[in-house]
């Protein structure tokens, strides 16, 4: 489990800043939704998560835990209990080509100065992937030391394993990596790194809104194209949502399933909630269980 947490932390650092934008015109606010109808014998649940938070801000609502207890199957974006996925995660932050070899001397020098603000330098990061660079943004933006960080999905996973729930993932690490690469090449990542202070301010506002289950405000904070443009949103949110929706019906038909995905995936015209409704399911916010 320690290795799971370590690797999960690395992946979630990347996703915490990469999947925060969404267009949401729905005023229904909740971090937990019930999925029923369309031939389901038992309801399933959809939980919007905030991947990484400091322990002082961290809370999983009782209704979320109750929904997990009522479910037979716990489903995350990636199955952290799959050994093959664990191996793939270890490779995710390594690169065959050095970062410095992909940059001009001037750009490499500039990146080295930028990395100093993150407590590191190009020499230390040179053999890392773009995803490893991107993860630095969350590392800096989170206002507490690593020992005080809580991972929302990992907390749910530990509870699911304790209660002997079936565990699955909606996508493979390689699929997620393909999406990240399509959204953020090295140049884009460096541009995001330069905005470090803006992310710190943004993350604080997002956490405040998430604690209030005000997902509308969380998403509105990330509508600035400096953070995520339309192409990046398509790769990180829309395309992945549509892929997940093809897998979810079979899971829900077989057994009551609890899906835990980043909150940004829930809302919008191409969000998981709307996509499920378009397939004939009833999806409603849950205030308490």
Automatic annotation (TrEMBL):
Any single GO CC term annotated in Swiss-Prot or TrEMBL for this entry? membrane
Q: Which domain of life, per UniProt?
A: Bacteria
Sorted UniProt keywords: Glycoprotein, Hydrolase, Membrane, Metal-binding, Metalloprotease, Protease, Signal, Transmembrane, Transmembrane helix
| Molecular function GO labels | metal ion binding; metalloendopeptidase activity
Q: What is its main location?
A: membrane
According to the UniProt entry, where is the signal peptide? Answer: 1-22
Q: Name one Pfam family in it.
A: TraB_PrgY_gumN
- Membrane-topology descriptor: Single-pass type I membrane protein
Q: Where in the cell is it found?
A: Membrane
Necessary cofactors: Mn(2+); Co(2+)
Q: Which GO terms describe its biological process?
A: negative regulation of Wnt signaling pathway; proteolysis
Q: What residue intervals traverse the membrane?
A: none
PANTHER family cross-referenced by the UniProt entry: METALLOPROTEASE TIKI, METALLOPROTEASE TIKI HOMOLOG
Q: What is this protein called in UniProt?
A: Polysaccharide biosynthesis protein GumN
This protein's species is: Chryseobacterium angstadtii
The upper taxonomy is: Bacteria, Pseudomonadati, Bacteroidota, Flavobacteriia, Flavobacteriales
């Amino acid at each position: 489990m320690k290795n799971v947490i370590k690797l999960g932390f690395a992946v979630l650092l990347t996703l915490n800043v990469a999947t925060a934008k969404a267009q949401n015109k729905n005023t229904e606010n909740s971090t937990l939704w019930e999925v029923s109808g369309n031939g389901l014998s038992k309801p399933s649940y959809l939980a919007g998560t905030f991947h990484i938070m400091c322990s002082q801000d961290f809370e999983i609502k009782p209704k979320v835990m109750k929904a997990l207890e009522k479910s037979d199957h716990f489903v995350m974006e990636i199955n952290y209990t799959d050994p093959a996925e664990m191996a793939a995660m270890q490779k995710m932050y390594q690169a065959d080509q050095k970062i410095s070899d992909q940059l001009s001397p001037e750009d490499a020098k500039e990146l080295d100065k930028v990395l100093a603000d993150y407590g590191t330098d190009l020499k230390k990061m040179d053999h890392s992937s773009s995803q490893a660079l991107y993860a630095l943004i969350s590392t800096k933006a989170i206002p507490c030391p690593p020992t005080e960080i809580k991972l929302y999905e990992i907390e749910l996973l530990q509870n699911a394993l304790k209660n002997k729930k079936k565990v699955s993932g909606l996508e493979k690490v390689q699929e997620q990596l393909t999406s990240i690469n399509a959204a953020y090449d090295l140049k884009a990542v460096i541009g995001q790194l330069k905005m470090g202070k803006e992310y710190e301010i943004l993350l604080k506002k997002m956490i405040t809104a998430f604690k209030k289950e005000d997902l509308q405000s969380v998403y509105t904070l990330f509508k600035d194209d400096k953070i995520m443009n339309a192409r990046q949103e398509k790769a990180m949110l829309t395309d992945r949502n549509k892929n997940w929706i093809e897998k979810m019906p079979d899971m829900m038909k077989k057994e009551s399933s609890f899906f835990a995905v980043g909150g940004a995936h829930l809302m919008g015209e191409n969000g998981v909630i709307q996509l499920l409704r378009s397939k004939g399911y009833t999806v409603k916010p849950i205030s308490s269980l």
